Amino acid sequence: GIVLQDIWDESWGLDNVSVALSAPPTNSLYVKTSLASAGTLTLTSNAPIERVSASGNRAVVLDGVGKVHLLDLGNSTNPMLLGTWEPLFLPSDAKVVGDLVYVASYEPDFLSTVEIVDFSNPAQPVLLGWYDTPGHAVKLAVQGTTVYVADWEQGLLILDASDPTWPHRVGGFDTLGHVSGVVVSGRNAYVSDGRWLTLLNV
Fold it and tell me: What is the Cα Rg of the chain in Å?
């Protein structure tokens, strides 16, 4: 089986199935169960896979050349590439919820955006809507139709995406620092800001 001595990034989906990236990153990913290694998938590009996020039996991975790939993990021994999306800028994070993929991307000193992409036809994903953030969107969390954006120097942004063609800001919190990550559980948002972890009731 596959033994990963160092993990670059890892995300768990349903049925104790995870997707893991080796360190340093390569163009391959490894699908594991809680008991043993299950399968692998190598992208055709030679670009390293930088980030992974799993939800249910699907996962999204970001490669080093600016593309977002949607994977089917239904058969953990044979993960399959469903489709690929190339966002406006180099992606920094992505989350999959059902047929929708939320992508954060930015170009330093230029523009930052959160895109909502419909993968109901994975071979031809469609951009439904987007929101241009005032900072640099580096991380995302999605709960229901609410999107939480770690927007670096602009703090935490909260977007209403109930209409995916018109995501809009409904709130946020300025930590007066640089927000680099966000995780949401229930009514609580855990926001990382430098050396600090801030707990917010959202």
Answer: 16
Give the Å distances, CA to CA, from 150 to 6, 95, 142.
26, 13, 12
Q: What are phi and psi of 6, to 5 degrees?
A: -130, 135
Of the candidates 82, 86, 49, the one whose C-alpha atom is nearest the C-alpha of residue 68 is: 86
The C-alpha atoms of residue 175 and residue 154 are separated, in whole angstroms, by: 8
Q: What is the dihedral of CA 128, 133, 137, 139, to 10 degrees?
A: -70
Maximum pairwise Cα distance, the chain: 48
For the stretch 19-49, pLDDT in tens is 766 666 777 766 666 555 667 888 877 788 8
Using an 8 Å Cβ cutoff, are 105 and 88 in contact?
Answer: yes
Locus of tokens 């809680």: 34
Coil, helix or strand for 13?
coil
